[in-house]
Write a structure and sequence with these properties.
- This is ATP-binding protein.
- Keywords: Membrane, Transmembrane, Transmembrane helix.
- With 351 residues, the chain is of the alpha+beta class.
- It contains nine helices and five strands; from the N terminus they run H-H-H-H-H-H-H-H-E-H-E-E-E-E.
- The chain has two domains: 170 residues, no CATH class; 133 residues, Heat Shock Protein 90 (2-Layer Sandwich), CATH 3.30.565.10.
- Helices cover 65% and strands 11% of the residues.
- The protein has a five-stranded mixed beta sheet with strand order 1-2-3-5-4, covered by helices on one side.
- Strand 4 and strand 5 form a beta hairpin.
- It is rod-shaped, with a radius of gyration of 41 Å.
């Protein structure tokens, strides 16, 4: 919009203002010529920012606004009193366009500047003596026509700006909604994948028990059942909305072990911190393995700092438990007498 206003100001100044300045004599032409040059310089100064679609600097607006009003006053004062608000008074309607260029995004200041310009021009008009009815009516019609157009431009600009802002806001809201929907669909697909993978590993165990291929009295079978039960218990806990998901999922594993009669000591140190769901699965993997292999006693500890999360399990289990580190979680395994110790460690990446 400012580019259109700059073009309008240039065309009006040189197309409609230059001819009256040169054609109509006045008692002192040089102030009017100086005012014309000043207005042209203000327009040229604004072009540097307007053509690059950048906002006008506050310093430029602050300095140029009073200069434009002063130039208008000088140009109007140089016109003969009987010619004010007529064709020789070229600056009256022109200055409003310069003010629109400068103050388009400052509506209240623009209205105040236009009012100041109108009051100053009316003061010069009335200072020369009380005009007759025809002159007064012509002056009023000229002032009304010029200011009505300029205020209409301001109003249209404000409406367009508000509509564009609302359109941008609606577009951003649609984008946010689409992003949330995609995230929800992805989360649902991940849930289905995780459940399918877990149930796929459990179904052969259930089938073996159903057809008698597996003996429920066998220690290995009971351990596989304990492992599957703990995995499913942790998987169900992953869907719960809780303030501390990691501790909630570890507690679900502890609860599954206690239901089997294992005496579990559970300790948590450190404040809650956000941990991605996949990392939580990898951190709780050794917990599930250790607790499902425990025969009667186990100890689980969660240690959290600003940079790292550690989960350790000590259980009276056999040493042939299989665990492996991943790209994000490091798993350590050790045997201390009759006890097996597993520790999973995840370090938060900086930033």
């Amino acid at each position: 919009m400012r580019i259109i206003l700059v073009c309008a100001a240039v065309l009006l100044q040189f197309g409609l203002g230059l001819r009256p300045l040169l054609a109509h004599g006045s008692p002192s032409r040089w102030p009017a010529v100086a005012a014309f040059v000043v207005l042209a310089c203000v327009t040229a100064a604004c072009c540097g920012w307007v053509l690059r679609r950048r906002p006008l600097p506050v310093a430029l607006v602050t300095a140029a606004t009073p200069v434009v009003l002063a130039a208008s006053f000088c140009a109007t004062a140089a016109v003969a009193p009987e010619q004010r608000f007529q064709a020789p008074d070229w600056s009256f309607g022109l200055v409003g366009w310069h003010l629109l260029v400068l103050l388009l995004d400052r509506a209240r200041v623009l209205v105040a500047a236009l009012a100041t310009h109108l009051v100053a021009s009316a003061g010069l008009f009335l200072a020369a003596g009380v005009p007759d009815r025809a002159a007064f009516g012509a002056a009023g019609a000229t002032a009304f026509a010029a200011l009505a157009v300029q205020l209409a431009v301001l109003l249209i600009t404000r409406v367009l700006h508000r509509q564009s802002h609302e359109a941008v806001t609606e577009a951003e809201e649609r984008d946010r909604l689409a992003t949330r929907m995609l995230a929800a669909h992805q989360w649902e697909r991940d849930r289905h994948s995780v459940f399918a993978g877990q149930l796929g590993a459990t179904l052969p165990l259930l089938a073996g028990l159903a057809d008698g291929a597996l003996d429920p009295r066998d220690a290995g079978t009971r351990r596989r059942c304990a492992l599957a039960a703990t995995q499913l218990r942790r998987l169900f806990a992953e869907n719960d909305e809780v303030p501390d998901p990691l501790v909630h999922e570890v507690a679900a594993c502890v609860d599954a072990a206690e239901r089997r009669g294992v005496d579990v000591s559970f300790a948590v140190s450190g404040a809650a911190m956000p941990v991605p769901s996949q990392v939580r699965r990898e951190l709780t993997g050794p917990v599930i393995t250790g607790l499902s292999a425990a025969r009667g006693r186990a100890r689980v500890s969660v240690l959290r700092t600003d940079e790292e999360v550690r989960i350790a399990v000590v259980a009276d289990a056999r040493a042939d438990v299989v665990t492996a580190s991943t790209g994000r979680v490091v798993v350590e395994c050790g045997v201390h007498g009759e006890y097996l110790r597993l520790e999973a460690r995840w370090r938060k990446r900086p930033g």
